[in-house]
Amino acid sequence: MTFRRALISGHAITLLLAMLIAAIAIVSLRATTNDAGQISRKLADELRLVQDLRLDAELVVTSGRGALISDEPADRARFDATRRAFELRLDEFRAQPLAHEAVAECAALELAARAYELGAADALRRRDAGHGLATVTPYFESTLEPLHDNFEAAAGELLDHQRAAFDAALLDTESSAHGAELMLLVAACGLVAVGALLAVKTVRRLRDDYARLEAAHAAAAGAAAARDELIAVVSHDLRTPLQTVTLGASAIDDAPLADADRRALRRITNAAARMRRMVDSMLESARFDRDSVVLADDACDASELVDATVEQFEPRAADQSIALTVGHADAALHVDRERVVEVLSNLVDNAFKHTPRGGAIRVTAEAHERDVRFAVADTGAGIAPADLPHVFDRYWQAAAQAPRGRRHGVGLGLYICKRLVEAHRGEIGVRSELGHGTEFWFTLPR
Fold this sequence. Notes:
Helices cover 72% and strands 10% of the residues. The protein has 446 residues and is α+β, with helices and mostly antiparallel strands. The strands form 2 sheets. The chain has a 5-stranded mixed beta sheet with strand order 2-4-5-7-6, covered by helices on one side. Strands 1-3 form a two-stranded antiparallel ribbon.
């Protein structure tokens, strides 16, 4: 399994565990809350029913006592009404689930309530049978008092039974909650374990990758340093034989020669000069990589820089039938004059390499509020869009820019231009379209 796949799997497991913990917490909280609410509501309904039954029983006795004392039809009617209400309450009591859960307690309560009611009714029947109030009233009190005590005792036993059932249900709910807490703890521990393993694996992999990158960077730095040192040594050692070739060609040039020999000598001189430029470019590139660029601070004008550059190429333009024009504005600058002229010269020389006879090259300088924009535009073949991001890379040359596969140099000219412009805190870029020429530009702060 690759590191990427293992990392994704670890994060997926962590996410699933987190979702599982959240789901367990939500379900457990809802279940506990619902159970506790249902138990509380059930107990409240049962308490209300028992209390209503007790109240109706007391109303029967109270209305019976009133009818017994007054012997009025209205009081008798009230007594009958309370008895009917009591009967209905007993029917409701028997229909409740409570009567099926606490059978013995409910049966005892019903019997006590029924005896309580019948005791009150029996006293009224004795009054109807002709017994006097003085006789019936003591009977009413003596008969109903123990019946009342029995009724209250039965009601108390039923309530105690339901409270015990309520406590047991709450214990079950608490047990379920503790079970859910244990599951949450286990899931949380699993989540922490997976997260820790994932973190350890990630840290180890990143540490290994960092070590490999450090080793690769050190190897690359060593290789680059060795390359630059080799380039510097070889380039320096090449200067002596090149100088010898140049001096020898100059000495031969003073002697009388045939036209063919003169042309061969010119080719030797041009080749030596080209090699000298290539050696200088390699030395300068190695120096840029090894040391920071040190710039002079010369006060000059943008038009002066353009004119100094173009003057060097006017004979070459005439020889190749290329129209070399300028367009500039006066703008004071503080720059390294020789370095800026070197940048412009490299860009113009590059334009000459890729502009055919009869073409045109234009060198311009435009003054803006914060900077001056220099540009070298040609009417050459242009650069392919895929090659544009690489034109300032070191040792890079587009194959399409070298006719018949010939390279014009070592690919360091534009790289050196970029380093020099950036050392001036400027920007450099290129715009090109195949078949419509190329424009290299750079800006220098004013």
